[in-house]
Amino acid sequence: MDEPTSAAPLPAPRDPPPPDAVFTADFASTAQWVAGRSSAYPGGGPVNPGDDKLDYLVADADHSRSGVFRATRRADGLWDTGLLTTEGSEQGFTLRTGDVLETRVRLPEETGAWPAVWTWRDGDQEIDVFEYHPDNPDLLEFTNHVRGGNRYVRDDAVRPGAWVDLRTDFGRRSVVWWLNGTRVFTDRRGVGRGWHACLIVNLSVCAGRYHPPPDPATDEMTFEVGSLVVRRPSADGPSSGQAAVPSRSEDGHT
Questions:
Q1: Are strands 55-58 and 79-85 parallel, antiparallel or unpaired?
Q2: What pTM, to 2 d.p., does this model score?
Q3: Lowest mean pLDDT among 99-103, 117-121, 169-173, 243-247
Q4: What share of the chain is helix, strand, coil (3-state, %, to 5)?
Q5: What value does the mean pLDDT take over residues 19-28?
Q6: Pick from 127, 187, 124, 114: which is nearest to 153 by CA?
Q7: Contacts of 6 (CB under 8 A, 6+ apart)
Q8: Considering only CA atoms, which of 87, 33, 18, 20 is closest in space to residue 225?
Q9: How far does the chain reach from its first CA to its final CA, in angstroms?
Q10: What number of other Cβ atoms are within 10 A of residue 131's Cβ?
């Protein structure tokens, strides 16, 4: 006997197809990244004491090109530090409104370490994908400097030496931050329609005004970026500033 059939249309997929990756970080690539200088530092660097940093930016591969961002103590009291940026690179990649950045990072263990993934253009346009200070061992900092808005998120998964998965949705009306698959902050400010900015990945060293400087016995510190991908959703994907899946928490607790 023939099985009955239904004339009803097939249900639409629950989630949209994954958006295309438009940037996959290859930290060894000199076409993607410029090492050891940034317009976020006065004169492009190498130092930035006004931002409470002991950094002395260096371009040598050992401090950034493997994806392990390194800071090493200098005899003059500053620290050679690794920084990579897409600003001024051959490819000149910039993030745009609606982009989604996903990264997996290993947090540093040493007091005084100050890792970050962030954006910058023309003295502004800064969105902090994350900042971390080991003296606040379970806390990540997420900030929208473009339109104002920030959240300190505490979570048991955040600790010195831990690997964490981070995602930032650069929406027109909301920037949304995710930690290990859970949405933890929606700023309801967004970046606006025409926002675009370069990427920066770096390890800074605190000078002591806001967070403790390194211990005297520490001569080296590291943090690692295992992967970094930027996706650009299609026009029929999730609307700007909207999350693709529901969230259980925005304070870091499930």
A1: parallel
A2: 0.85
A3: 243-247
A4: 5, 40, 55
A5: 92
A6: 187
A7: none
A8: 33
A9: 51
A10: 18
**E strand or H helix at 185, and its extent?**
strand 182-186
Confidence of residue 235 (pLDDT cuts 50, 70, 90): low
pLDDT at 246 over 80: no
Structural element, H or E, at residue 80? strand 79-85
Please return the burial class of 97, using the count of CB atoms within 10 Å of its CB with bins 0-12, 13-18 and 19+: middle
pLDDT band (50, 70, 90) for residue 249: very low
The Cα 158–Cα 107 span in angstroms is 8
Verify cis geometry, omega within 30 degrees of 0, for the bond prior to 46. yes
Q: Rg of the Cα trace of the chain?
A: 20
Locus of tokens 């949405």: 183
b (16+ CB within 10 A) / e for 29-46: eeebbbbbbbbbbeeebb
Q: Which residues, in sequence order, are CB contacts of 144 under 8 Å at separation 6+?
A: 127, 128, 150, 175, 187, 189, 190, 191
User: What pLDDT does residue 16 have?
Assistant: 53
Q: Are 26 and 32 spatial neighbours (Cβ–Cβ below 8 Å)?
A: yes
